[in-house]
Amino acid sequence: MKKTKSIYTMDVILVMAASFLFMFSVMFVTPLINGYALSLGADSILAGIITGSMSIVSIFLRPIAGNLVDLYSKYCLSSIGGILILIGVSGYWLVNTSGLLILFRLINGTGFVLATICMTTWLAFLVPRRFVGEAMGFYGLMNALAMAVAPLIAINSYKVIGYRYSMMIASLAAVIMLIMIKFVKNHAIPQNKLSLKNIKHIRIIQKDTIPVALLMLFFSIPYFATQADLVEYVAMRKLSVSVGYFFLIYALSLLIIRIWLKRFFDTIAFGFWFWLSLIAMIIFLISMAFMKNNFIMLIAAVALSIGYGVIYSINQTTALLLSPLDQQGLASSTVYLGLDLGMASAPILGGIIASTIPHFYFYPIMLIMVPFVLVIYFIYRKKLNGAIQNH
Q: Measured between alpha carbons, how far is 335 from 214 in angstroms, rounded to an integer?
C-alpha cells in the first residue's frame, strides 16, 4: 500500500492524464492530415511533405529540447509545448489553403517535441528512482492508448462531420491538457540554470543512451511501417480481416500486459525484456505475412504489443537510469531521436519494399533488423543489464 501511495500521487495521475491528452491531440490529426491537405488543393507530393514535416522538425529539435528540459521547469516547458500543440492543431481547421498547413504542422511538431520529453522526465522526477520503470510503463500505456484511440475516433468522426469539425476535437484535447497541468503542484524545477557561461556546454546527445536509441530505431521501424501501410497492405493482398480493429487490439493487449508486468519493470534486467520483445517482434513479422483471418491478425497485434510496446517502456526506463540526474531530459531526447528516425524512415522504407517485391514479403524482409539489434545488444549488454542493478 505504501508503494502505491508513494508512486500514484495526484501529481503523477495528472501528468499521466495530460500525457494521454497531448498525444491524443497530435495522433488524432495524423490519419487526417494527408487527406485534408489534398482536399485543400495540394497535390500528392505536397501532401506528403506536409504530413512528414512534423517528424523532420522533431529530429532537429530533440537535442535542443533535451537540454532545455534539464535547465528549466518541466511545468513551464510543458505549458509552452501544450500551447504550441494547441496553436498547431487549431491552425489546421482555421486555414483555407494547403500551403499554410506546413506552417502549423511545424508549430505542432515543435510543441510535440517539448511535450514528449517534458512529460517523460517530469513523470520520472515525480516518482522514487527505484520505481521509474513502473512509471514509464504506465506513461507508455497512456501514449499507446492515445495512438490507438485517437486515429479510430478521427477516422470515424471526419466521415460524419468533416475534416474541420473533427480537428476541433484535437484542439479541445490540447485545452484540457493545459488545464490539467495547471493543477500539478511539483513543477520539477532543476537546480541548473541556463546562462551565457554554461550555454557552450549544451550537448547534442546523451552518450550513455546511444545504444538504447539505436535499439529504439530498429524496433520502431516495423511499428511505424504498420501504422503507415497496414490498410494498403491488407487491400493490396485482398485479405478478409477487420483491419480497423488492429490497433484497438494492440492497445487492449498492451493495457493488460503493462498492468500485469508493471512491478517487474523495476526488478528484472534489460536482457529478459530484450529477448521477450525480439521473439515477439519476429512472431509479429511472420504472422503478418500469413495473415488470412482475424485470428491471425489478433496474434499479430498481441505480438506487436509485446515486441514494440514493452521494449518502448523498457528503453525509456533504461535510458533514464543510465544517465545522470542532471541529464534526464537529454537522455529522453536521445531515445526519442531514435524513435523519430524510425517514424521518418519507416514509411519511406515501406514504400520502397512495397514497390520492389511481392506484398507477401513486406513484413518478412524486415527481419533484416534482427542481426543489427543482436549486435547492438551483445556489445552493450553489460551496460544495459546493469542499469537496474545499479539503482
A: 8
Cell, residue 338: 531514435
Q: What is the pTM of this model?
A: 0.74
Q: How far apart are CA 70 and CA 48, in angstroms?
A: 34
CA dist 373 → 24, 80, 199, 272, 277 (Å) = 30, 36, 35, 14, 11
Angle ∠(36,47,155) on CA atoms, nearest 5: 35
Sorted by sequence, the CB contacts under 8 Å of residue 259 that are 6+ apart come out as none
192-195 LR contacts (CB < 8 Å, sep 24+)? 192/70, 192/71, 192/326, 193/71, 194/68, 194/71, 194/72
Specify the amino acid at residue 231. V
Instruction: Give per-10-residue mean pLDDT for the chain (391 aa).
Output: 60 91 89 82 77 78 78 87 94 87 91 86 81 76 80 82 92 95 86 51 78 93 82 83 83 82 78 95 96 94 92 86 80 83 79 82 93 95 80 54
In the chain, what are the helix, strand and coil shares in percent, each to the nearest 5?
A: 85, 0, 15
Grid cell, residue 131, equals 520505481
Distance CA 205, CA 352 (A): 30
First to last CA, the chain: 22
